[in-house]
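Box 3.1 A note on notation
Throughout this textbook, protein chains are presented in two layers. The first layer is the amino acid sequence; the second is a token string describing backbone geometry. Keep the layers aligned when reading.
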Amino acid sequence: MKFALFSLAMNTRNAVTGESFTAQQKFQNILGQAVLAEELGFDAYGIGERHGPPFLSSSPAVLLTAIAAKTSRIKLLTTVAVLSVLDPVRVAEDYATLDHLSGGRLELIIGKGNDPRHYPLFGIKEEEQWESLAERYALLRRLWREENVTWTGKYRPPLQDVTVLPRPLQQPIPVWHGSASSTLSTELAAKYGEPIFSSNTFHPLAKYKALIDHYRERWAYYGRDPQDAVVGAGAGSLYLGRTTEEAIGRYRPYYEAFHSTESAKHNQSPFQSLEDNLENGPLLIGSPDRVIEKIMKYHEAFGHEVLSISVDGLSETEQREQAEWFASEVAPVLRREIPSKVWSSGKAKQPHSIG
């Protein structure tokens, strides 16, 4: 298994210490996280896109470019880029530039996002999100693969003989499809022969497994080898302790603080308490052995080869502690037990795509 550390740049007052970051301090904290992730042997670092409080991650391309300048090996991910509201021409230009500046370390995870607050900001209706995502991605693919593109669609003005510059360094830039709530995303990924990344954050295992199963079914429908289907998955928040009881006790204030925010209410998670989430959801809270056991349980259901975790919201001391502990006590066991063909030769294995 391969591992990504990611951040949504969630900037809230610490639930235990009361400390708070200015925006500048939070950005420096993220840069430090990414450097630490590379030092600890994580395979990737990701920035998720959000357009409302308490998140400061409205510009993933800019943040990832700063991270690229401070790192040399680690893959750079968008977790996710909200393509349903973005101009594909701007996306093509920005991320191709980042691809060059990072030496070809970029992998784009696209999606419609899980926070409805961004739709009115960019002039589309929530019910248009899937149609908008499909149209914009079809155009983005053409802009990165073709020159002199002529195109007409619904969600941006027509294009006539357009060639975006720079051309991507990677041919093509690897793209994953974020999957959280609908078979429309898994269908899009299977259609193009590209991997999916399950959010696996706010709901029980069965909901995400059904989407992953649909992806594999549609993959086979399009005549592809099942062995080429690639799945990544997120997880609930991480908090390790010497014992599971210690970890729960230390994490509880963070859980309660986050779930009282307006952004958390948008996610409509069915879990009624921390204990409910621990028992029936994806939270990775406990001793290293307990967390390994839970990840193995989810892998049995999902068959995923990449796992993303976050230490957002914790104090800087705890962020380092948790990342170091995961890298030393959890990751080595999972690397040994779960083979992964992703990023096995310095570049992500990409299934053959159509078009």
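The chain is about 45% helix and 15% strand. Residues 316-337 form the longest helix (22 residues).
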